[in-house]
């Protein structure tokens, strides 16, 4: 409703513009392919951040890890000479392991010295971007190209396309497998129970015998692994060179996906597709009507405000119930 209200105010043909916004992303195979392509990296970062948020850890380091793991995967895609299935597998595995190692640093700082994970993760984003850009400029850059891009990847390193006429790649299957696996991990295993209990109340979890420091480090390792795999898969699935000269933004978008999914792994699929859908719709609307694509930033801000208001009201309601219980 908020989007429709904004469109009605801005556009001279609101009904036609709303129709474009709602229906154009599914009007052709290519447009729907754009939705799925954009949703794949959002699934990875949304899943990574949903695990962190589930443990009550507000860590936004997925952005830098996503970028730097893409650089690592690009290096292997350029310099290694492996078989068709082994080459991308090695690149994705390397990106994931590097992501896990890097994510463990804020986790250890939080677990051992209670360092604020938001501050340390944001600092790491800048560090990883700077190091990654250095590697692109001085180690991977193709001097013959008329842009700041790497050498071309070996053809064996590229991920297979799943749907002809689109750029939907096999990374979609990996993302869905990861989501199912981590749903099972969070809700069906002992470690997932410890993760959830640590997120609900760390002091109570420690009193119950849960080693919360170990849980915090573990969830950081897993989140870094997922974000690192996501960056590697995005690079190998969508490009034939590494060409990010700025942070791609998928890590920060993952926080919105996680909030929309209420930190539930299976719901990440729908949240990622929804965010990708409205972004593709806004882009097509900007090209085919008189409403600028920046409108989507307003919609995203409203979504964040509504989610925050819901969480605040839930917290306030629980607090009032506790007060009533204490009086009685």
Can you offer a commentary on this structure?
This protein is mainly α and 328 residues long. The protein has one domain: ABC transporter involved in vitamin B12 uptake, BtuC (Orthogonal Bundle), CATH 1.10.3470. Helix content is 74%, strand content 0%. It contains 13 helices and no strands. It has helices spanning 2-10, 14-23, 29-54, 62-79, 86-113, 117-140, 171-188, 190-200, 202-207, 212-238, 250-260, 267-288, 295-327. The chain starts with a helix and ends with a helix. The model has no long low-confidence stretch (mean pLDDT 91).
Strand content: under 5%
Average pLDDT figure: 91
Low-pLDDT runs: none
Helix count? 13
In CATH, the topology is named ABC transporter involved in vitamin B12 uptake, BtuC
What is the straight-line distance between the termini?
42 Å
The geometry reads as globular
Largest sheet: none
Number of domains: 1
Give the H and E element order.
HHHHHHHHHHHHH
- What percentage of residues falls in helices of 4 or more residues? over 70%
Question: What layout of secondary structure does this protein have?
Answer:
Layout: H1 2-10, H2 14-23, H3 29-54, H4 62-79, H5 86-113, H6 117-140, H7 171-188, H8 190-200, H9 202-207, H10 212-238, H11 250-260, H12 267-288, H13 295-327
Helix pairs in contact: 1-2, 1-13, 2-12, 3-7, 3-10, 3-11, 3-12, 4-5, 4-6, 4-10, 4-11, 5-6, 5-10, 7-8, 8-10, 11-12
């Amino acid at each position: 409703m908020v989007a429709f209200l904004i469109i009605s105010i801005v556009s001279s043909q609101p009904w036609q513009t709303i129709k474009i916004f709602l229906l154009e992303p599914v009007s052709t195979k290519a447009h729907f392919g754009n939705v799925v392509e954009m949703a794949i990296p959002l699934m990875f970062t949304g899943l990574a951040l949903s695990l962190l948020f589930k443990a009550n850890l507000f860590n936004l380091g997925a952005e830098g890890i996503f970028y730097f793991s893409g650089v690592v995967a690009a290096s292997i895609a350029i310099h290694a000479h492996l078989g068709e299935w082994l080459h991308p597998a090695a690149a994705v595995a390397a990106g994931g392991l590097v992501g896990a190692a890097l994510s463990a640093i804020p986790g250890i700082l939080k677990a051992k010295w209670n360092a604020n994970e938001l501050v340390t993760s944001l600092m790491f984003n800048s560090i990883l971007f700077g190091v990654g850009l250095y590697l692109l400029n001085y180690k991977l850059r193709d001097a013959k190209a008329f842009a700041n891009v790497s050498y071309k990847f070996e053809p064996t390193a590229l991920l297979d396309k799943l749907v002809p006429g689109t750029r939907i790649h096999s990374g979609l299957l990996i993302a869905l497998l990861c989501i199912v696996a981590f749903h099972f991990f969070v809700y069906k295993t002992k470690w997932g129970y410890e993760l959830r209990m640590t997120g609900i109340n760390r002091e109570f979890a420690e009193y119950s015998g849960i080693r919360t420091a170990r849980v915090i480090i573990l969830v950081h390792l897993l989140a870094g692994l997922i974000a690192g795999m996501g960056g590697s898969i995005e690079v190998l699935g969508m490009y034939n060179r590494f060409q990010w000269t700025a942070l791609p933004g998928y890590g920060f978008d993952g926080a919105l996906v996680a909030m929309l999914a209420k930190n539930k792994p299976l719901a990440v699929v729908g949240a990622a597709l929804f965010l990708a859908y409205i972004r593709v719709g806004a882009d097509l609307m900007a090209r085919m009507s008189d409403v600028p694509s920046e409108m989507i930033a307003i919609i995203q801000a409203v979504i964040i405000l509504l989610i925050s208001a819901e969480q605040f009201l839930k917290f306030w309601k629980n607090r009032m119930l506790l007060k009533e219980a204490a009086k009685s």
